[in-house]
Amino acid sequence: MPFLLEIQNLRKTYKSKKALDGVSFSVKEKSCFGLLGPNGAGKSTTMKILTGVLTSDGGSINMFGKDARKNRKAILQHIGYVPQDIVLYEKLSAYDNLVFFGKCYGLDGDVLKERINDVLKQTGLSDRAKDTVKSYSGGMKRRINIAAALLHKPKLLILDEPTVGIDPQSRNHIFDMIRSLKEQGTTMIYSTHYMEEVEALCDEIAIIDNGEVVTQGTLDYLFTEYGRKAVYMESKTNFPTEKLTGIEAVHSHHQGLIIETAAPVDLMEQIIHISKEQKILLHHLEIEKPSLESVFLSLTGKTLRD
Amino acid sequence: MNNILLKEMQLMFKEKANLIYLIIMPLAFIIIFGTIFNHAEDSTITVNVTDNDHSAASKTFIAQMKKIKGFDVKLNHKDVDKQISQIKDGKLNSLIVIPKGFNDQLASGQNKAKISFYQDAAASNETASIEAILKNLSNQYRENQIVGALAKDGKTDEQIKSIMNSPVTIDSVKENSHNVDMMSQMVPGYTVMFAFYIFISVIKRFFTEKESGMISRLQSTGMNPLSYLLGMWIPHFLTIMIQCIVLIGFGHFVYGMHIGSFIGIFLLIVSLAVCGSSLGVALSFIVKNENQGIGMTQFIALGGAMLGGLWFPSNMLPKFAQAIGKFTPQYWAQQGFLDVIVRDIPVTGLWKSFAALIAFGIIGIIIALTRYKAFLRSAIE
């Protein structure tokens, strides 16, 4: 699959603070690319540069096979940007907001009407279109916030934390929208600090921290390369972990222990053997599922919510 | 640009606060102050008199005072010392005391008759007119004395009349009197004053756009920054136009205010709208936040109203304040309106006001354009 976007060594400094310090990553066409990192990592700055809102201090962006700096206007016609905040006119109806944004993207007349009806259907808000945005719930506002960026059928949709502070129903609706867009062939960059969202939606991920991309790859690659290999166990009485061999670390977790090891299957065999030998009743024993949380922790030494 | 303009107009009409402080408040001011000052001629000054002589002469003096229009003579028999103490306490403005023996002193012809006038120095506006009346009455007594002396001297009535007539006659002619009333000062005054309150609306809109992230989002649509600026500016220009037409129209149709040249009035409104909206946009890009902008608006709108002669004619101000006033757009707007409404000056004679207002508008546009990039940058970073 060819790359739709290639970023090389992107740099941005606000006054004396380095926001981006040589960010590089590539996004494949028709994929959903996750940009994962804690608050202040540089995700929003990267997105604002990609959408032409900010200019970078250095580096290169190649989008749709063109230099983004030299072809800003032409490229922006193919980008939809969903900002982190809900940026709508609250006193206007959802329909009027969509008319406004549609015209900003150069749509008009019947084409605009048709596109508005389409995105309203996608968001599931057709019946509330004439209500003022002010009367909407947070989740509904978020959906219209996304709809406004879809009117011109962008080839690349950039979503900056689109599910912050919303109810599960709206979150699911947004997930469905993203999956449907992906099926239709829209390439997406999805920024978040929620691991589960990246895991649920993204094909490939770049982990960003302190203005740098720490790593990039598919979920499988990241889990294999950086995921913690461990076994989780719970027993009725204290388990003699000192008798286990090949272990790297032991942490208390809930009512049990997480035991890190390079060979989790071997370790499970040892645990079963010792518990039989010493008549220790095991409540729980499983290989720990790799998670992005542990990938992030092993790469940056901190959790996403630090 | 049309898209931004239409959206702004929609938002303008949905914002009830705009209607309140751009239309309803100035209308309320015009109605309240118009009602008060249109009945100014009904007001009277109270003259407190204590007659301790109870003579024919004192009664004649009081009767003469009562004849004068605008003065309400209140005769009392209260203790004079108590009344003087009330004046000291500010409870009474003034007191005229006709002392015992006034009649005899007057009859003696030795110029010894004396009337005391006690007054509160803090109420000099009111007491000055009473004092003037008293001096006038005193002059009448003097003239009567002269007439008596001339008659004794054997002069005929004709001769006396000729002598007593002043060699100088004042012929008071009021030009444009048909156009002058309180409304002809007040309606344009409050129209101009509240036109500058558009600053608040402009500042609010730009800061809302900035802080909500809208400017940032619109940048991502490839929006032309100049189209955005025009789209945001024109609705405020149109709002001032509507505001001025409504207020001047109200003065004309409700209070019968003379309008003069319609083209002149219209062009003044256009010039004022260019000036007010441009300065408003410029101010939005200068101030750091909305509160600072509102503070600056109050300073400019109220300070300009006072110095520009919107509340009372500027020639009532000290010379230095009059000179400063000429550097305010409010002064030129007000002078322009007064030229048309009161002095019936044709459109060609209003060029100074047009030029001054457009010049202020151009200054506003230059500042706005100079500061615009920095404003956009602050909105997206």
UniProtKB/TrEMBL annotation, chain A:
Q: Which residues are listed as membrane-spanning?
A: none
Q: Which organism is it from?
A: Terrilactibacillus laevilacticus
The domain of life is Bacteria
Q: Which Pfam families match?
A: ABC_tran
Q: Which PROSITE patterns match?
A: ABC_TRANSPORTER_1, ABC_TRANSPORTER_2
The segment(s) forming the ABC transporter domain are 5-235
Q: Which SMART domains match?
A: AAA
Q: Name one GO molecular function term.
A: ATP binding
InterPro entries, alphabetically?
AAA+_ATPase, ABC_transporter-like_ATP-bd, ABC_transporter-like_CS, P-loop_NTPase
Task: State what protein this is by name.
Answer: ABC transporter ATP-binding protein
Keyword terms: ATP-binding, Nucleotide-binding
TrEMBL record, chain B:
Q: Which organism is it from?
A: Terrilactibacillus laevilacticus
What protein name is recorded for this chain? ABC transporter permease
Q: Which residues cross the membrane?
A: 20-40, 187-207, 228-255, 261-287, 294-312, 350-369
Supply the alphabetized keyword list: Cell membrane, Membrane, Transmembrane, Transmembrane helix, Transport
Question: ABC transmembrane type-2 domain location, by residue?
Answer: 144-375
Topology with respect to the bilayer:
Multi-pass membrane protein
Q: Chief location of this protein?
A: membrane
Highest rank taxon of the organism: Bacteria
Query: Where does this polypeptide localize?
Result: Cell membrane
